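@channel sequence for tomorrow's demo:
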Amino acid sequence: MAEQDREDLIREHRAYDARCDAVSCFEVFFRRSASMTPTVAHFERFPCFAGADGQDATPDFTVFFRDGSLLVGEISNLARQRESLESLLHQLGRYHRLQQGPSAPRRWRQAKAGAHRTARRTQ
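structure tokens (generated this afternoon):
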């Protein structure tokens, strides 16, 4: 394996590992904190489901609340180029239009109209 390939793999693994750590922190907050637990119906790590445009939606996590609202979480690393921000904004726009999300393992539920939120953490 070439040295550059090795370095790329290590860098990609570190980014993935950091993303997993961040999702775990959100999961603990939403599923175990005394103030949030009663409001959360379902937390899903790394879901993959059809978006409003028919394309796969692959956020880092989703939270379906008991009131029917949906939070879509995306953790991103922004480059200094404008295209990086534009790509993230396009992705967040797609997530904002979602009409459904995971509400239990292998079950989907309609989100309340206008009741979705998008959370993002930029590193």
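heads up for whoever presents: Strands lie at 40-45, 49-50, 56-57, 61-65, 70-76, 100-104, 107-110, 116-122.
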